[in-house]
Amino acid sequence: MDDKVKFEIEFVIQSSPQLLYTYLSTPSGLSEWFADNVNSRGELFNFIWDGSEEEAKLLKRKSDEFVKFAWVDNEDDSFFEMKIIVDEITKDVSLFITDFADEDEVDEAKMLWENQVSSLKQVLGSK
């Protein structure tokens, strides 16, 4: 298996960090924008898209700051992390995403995140 490439992407989100965190860390919040449905049992989250199901383990989280997941069926040590960054001066809120993809799929993965975050912004009423 090829090693995956780490990539990072940032989005400015007009939302409070507390509200944004709810959409990143709870099954009900994630099912509003990230997947068709999300269920959790402890640290395990089931993400459902068009009938297919993926399981991820919540590795770490810090309230109003970040969540970090790893797909259970991955053989490598890749993960995806959604971090909330607040600019000290302007107080602008950004969502900073770290993820991994095969080298030839990085652009596709970024586009997928852009679509997902676009849905998140709609749910939040952010531009």
UniProtKB/TrEMBL annotation:
Gene3D superfamilies: 3.30.530.20. Pfam families: START_2 (PF19569). InterPro entries: START-like_dom_sf, START_2. Residues 1-125 form the START-like domain. This is SRPBCC domain-containing protein. It comes from Aggregatimonas sangjinii. The lineage of its organism: Bacteria, Pseudomonadati, Bacteroidota, Flavobacteriia, Flavobacteriales.
